[in-house]
Write a structure and sequence with these properties.
8-stranded mixed β-sheet; Rossmann fold
């Protein structure tokens, strides 16, 4: 509980007034013994205990009445179910806002999203209880904090609006702890507004150890988790992949894979109407769905043979989350799917070359080139979508070239060299080789919801668990995301993301002396082609991008392609979904598909991630009108009135308290 007028609590000693009056009245009259009254004292002796109890209750009621009045005029605030801790206004209040697409899910019977509900409640709370606190905003789409002048601004800022991005909660908290330490913020309240999506929190990642240490060592820092973990069971999400144009007997057609997912499975068949908009022309497709996912592979749509480039959307009817009801795409003459293998090992390079040059889509052109590590600086950077790097990690000028390649949206997959050195790239360093030929290791856990080892479009998992590794290289890393691991958390596959592209690190080699990747070729093939498709998506004149993974300055010259993209703020264009053109190049920005995964962080994982940190978990619901804290002075006024009524009742004299006299006739 906290108070809006806390200085009035200094009047609490006034509750001693009834005691003082009692003591004064005791010494007001001088006691003189009188024999005639002795019989009255003897008569009252049996009732003395009850009388003292009544006098005590009367005094207590008067004290409660005074205390109730003082508390009422001090304007107490309480949170009810929230249970805010008592204390003065913090010097600094930090708001950590998850702006991911999943936070746009709305409450049942409400049009307010989880994000809007959290912002409104925090705005009301801070405005009421801490208007003088320094307010700092950390939100998931920006790498810089923002100092806010007033809590009323929270709901109106562009930086707190909806986005089509994912959130990296560990990265946000790393920035928060750095800010607290650097700025010596004093007593600090940190409010984390999130829906606890597991893909955003990554509770098993290595960064939580540093976060725990920093927060647990800081005195005066309190952590509040304002969570919205409820997932709408009936919510549907739509996406498309593999969109490309091809010639047909009737002219031309677009080919795409349409995917529908539902948060919870359904047993009965459900027909979902899907609207497909291509260059402004709309058609409808009915998709039959059971379970939690359905994929229409290779769906074709006839288009004008002269239409070499264009744009489109797939849409479903509005439901709990409007952020996943539309998915955008652009198409053009497809770019060459080119991979470059940097290796001095002929056995490794041959396997990688064969896998990447053998395409699964006959409408695309695949190329693979092998170069030595000494010639790596001269590779064709602009035409390449994927680099498979089996050499010592790049340093110096070469490291800058590889880093720029990744920043442009392309992909690099690193394999450990035969002789690891001290070089570090993107926070990762190869250490020593471990020989496990006597007892090969099997993959124990891997990420199935998305990325290189995710389930297939039909929902079937890849046979990653069948992979055995007899030799692997240990990895020293900081801030990387674990995609596959051996028992005891030993990493097999890691990834680090740059502005747009991604770097992956595989701890073993795809040759028989090191692993069964070649004998179990499906996993290696799918992994390499997913990496190739990811990197090639930014080549050519039609580019599929994830919101939040592009420099906002690069979008300044873009022009909207459809009516839905016209209203997007220029400053927020890179973090929202849309269709744009920049001369001859077209861009489709969409939410990351990881946002469609409904899994949330369980209590045990959350407890481990924040072990030793002083935090309060508050579960709320989207659209809820229950305030985080509200004035409860009426309660104390009622207490005061009840105390006065009790005092009045206790003061009514009992018939036994009235002295009785008996008239006696005089005797002669």
């Amino acid at each position: 509980m906290t108070f809006l007028q806390p200085y009035l609590l200094f009047a609490l000693p006034l509750i001693a007034i009834p005691i003082l009056i009692h003591l004064i009245n005791q010494n007001r009259h001088k006691t003189i013994p009188w024999a005639a009254t002795m019989f009255l004292l003897q008569a009252k002796r049996m009732a003395r205990g009850m009388a003292r109890l009544r006098y005590f209750l009367i005094m207590l009621a008067r004290m409660l009445a005074i205390a109730g009045l003082i508390f009422a005029v001090s304007r107490p605030m309480a949170g009810g179910w929230l249970g805010l801790t008592a204390g003065s206004t913090p010097d600094t209040t930090i708001i950590v806002l998850d702006r991911s697409a999943s936070m746009e899910e709305q409450g049942a019977g409400s049009v307010r999203s989880k994000r809007e509900t959290a912002l409104q409640k925090l705005s009301d709370l801070i405005e009421s209880t801490g208007p003088n606190t320094q307010l700092v905003l950390f939100e998931s789409t920006s790498e810089t904090e923002k100092v806010i002048g007033s809590a009323k601004e929270l709901t109106d800022l562009p930086e707190t609006g909806p986005s089509a991005t994912a959130a990296d909660i560990p990265a946000l908290l790393e920035r928060v702890t750095e800010y607290i330490v650097t700025n010596e913020t004093g007593r600090t309240d940190v409010w984390i507004c999130s829906d606890l999506r597991r893909t955003d929190w990554n509770p098993t990642g290595g960064r939580w150890e540093t976060i725990r240490k920093q927060l647990s060592d800081r005195e005066g820092v309190r952590l509040y988790l304002l969570n919205y973990p409820t997932v709408a069971a009936e919510n549907l999400a739509i996406s498309v992949s593999g969109v490309h144009r091809r010639e047909s007997g009737a002219g031309a057609e677009l080919v795409m894979d349409i995917r529908l997912t539902r948060n919870e499975k359904i047993d009965e068949q459900q027909v979902i109407p899907v609207d497909i908009v291509i260059n402004g022309a709309r058609s409808t497709l009915e998709v039959e769905m059971t379970g939690s996912e359905v994929v229409r592979n290779g769906h074709t749509i006839p288009i004008d043979a002269e239409s070499r480039t264009g744009w489109g959307r797939v849409e479903i009817a509005g439901d709990a989350n409007p952020a996943d009801n539309v998915f955008r795409f652009v198409y053009s003459e497809p770019a060459v799917q080119k991979a470059v293998i940097v290796s001095d090992n002929e056995a490794v390079s041959k396997i990688l070359e064969l896998a990447t040059s053998t395409g699964f889509d006959q409408s695309l052109t695949y190329e693979a080139e092998v170069i030595s590590s000494a010639s790596a600086a001269a590779l064709s950077w602009k035409e390449t979508g994927l680099i498979l790097w089996h050499a010592p990690l790049p340093t110096g000028v070469l490291a800058k070239q590889v880093s720029d390649f990744i920043d442009s949206g392309r992909t690099v997959l690193f394999f450990p060299p035969e002789a690891p050195d001290d070089a570090t790239f993107l926070g990762v360093r190869w250490q020593a080789w471990i020989d496990q030929r006597q007892e090969p290791l099997a993959v124990s856990r891997w990420r199935t919801d998305s990325d290189l080892l995710g389930n297939t479009l039909s929902g079937s998992p890849l046979p990653v668990g069948d992979i055995e590794v007899s030799q692997y290289c240990t990895i020293e890393q900081e801030g990387a995301t674990l995609l596959a691991q051996f028992p005891e958390g030993i990493p097999l596959l890691l990834k680090t993301s740059a502005d747009q592209g991604t770097a992956y690190f595989c701890a073993t080699l795809p040759i028989n002396s090191h692993s069964t990747f070649t004998s179990n070729g499906i996993v290696l093939y799918v992994m390499l082609h997913r990496a190739l498709a990811r990197g090639s998506a930014v080549l050519g004149s039609a580019r599929q991008l994830e919101s939040g993974h592009i420099d906002s300055a690069a979008t300044d010259t873009w022009q909207p392609l459809d009516d839905l993209s016209v209203d997007q703020l220029l400053s927020q264009r890179s973090t929202t979904a849309g269709l744009y053109t920049d001369g001859e190049v077209q861009f489709a920005l969409n939410r990351p598909l990881s946002e469609d995964a409904p899994a949330i962080v369980d209590e045990e994982s959350l407890g481990k991630a924040l072990s030793g940190v002083n935090f309060t978990k508050i579960n709320d619901e989207a659209g809820s009108t229950l305030a985080l804290a509200s004035e409860v002075w009426r309660t104390f006024l009622i207490l005061m009135i009840a105390a006065l009524l009790l005092e009045a009742l206790l003061c009514i004299p009992d018939r036994q308290d009235i002295p009785k006299t008996t008239a006696v006739a005089p005797t002669l």
